[in-house]
Amino acid sequence: MRALFELYGAALVQDILIHTLYVLVSVAIGFALGLVLGVLLSRVPKWSNVILPVLSVFQTIPGLVFIGVLYIWWGGVSPTVIVALSVYAMFPVLKNTYTGILGVEDKYVEAARGCGMSPFQTLLKVELPLAMPTIIAGLRMAAIYTVSWAVLAAMIGLKGLGDFVYQGVASNNNTLILLGAIPAAILAIVFGAVIDRLQKKVTPRGLQKEVGK
Questions:
Q1: Distance of CA 181 to CAs 96, 119, 134, 187, Å?
Q2: CA 37 to mean position of chain CA atoms
Q3: Residues 135, 35 contacting (CB under 8 angstroms)
Q4: Terminal CA-CA length for the chain
Q5: Residue of 101, 98, 82 whose CA lies nearest to 29
Q6: What is the rounded radius of gyration, in angstroms, for the C-alpha atoms of the chain?
Q7: Prediction pTM value
Q8: Which residue of 7, 12, 142, 153 is 20 to 30 Å from 21, comparing CA positions?
Q9: Distance from CA of residue 21 to its chain's centroid?
Q10: CA 100 to chain CA centroid, nearest Å
């Protein structure tokens, strides 16, 4: 084991850092886009009958195909991976934002309007806080999925833990495959745990009590 880390340790640490950076940047962009688009879509629910099915079809396109198309246009540069991962990370956040906001009971919205709040104030102070647990659940899905999708970066020479996985597959070396797969699995668990904690923090106390009953 010691000899293994002496041989691959430096490369492994570098690939873990690159992989983590891909995930953090892509999920941050995807979360921002998904949140904004989800809010906009919730304001005009009729559009969802067209937009959501189109997005569902787009989401079925394999990540490798999408990255491959972007690679043809832009080449082997970091934005190729970041854009592809951000788009895929956006989907669960968008859907959960839309679902969460529409799931807010009318009585809360009506109460906010009765207090003289504008539609924007109602969104910020009532709808988004109540929908936030659902939105954060979408963020959790996006982060965990992106950890696995980021492996594809190595296919176009942009490093990450996919380096070890693909080298191991090419050379039939199970050790190299595990050196890439195990840290990726650990990253997914860590991101999931951190976001679970965040979800508890952003859940209004009243909702926490209801869930605890």
A1: 29, 47, 29, 10
A2: 15
A3: yes
A4: 49
A5: 82
A6: 20
A7: 0.88
A8: 7
A9: 13
A10: 17
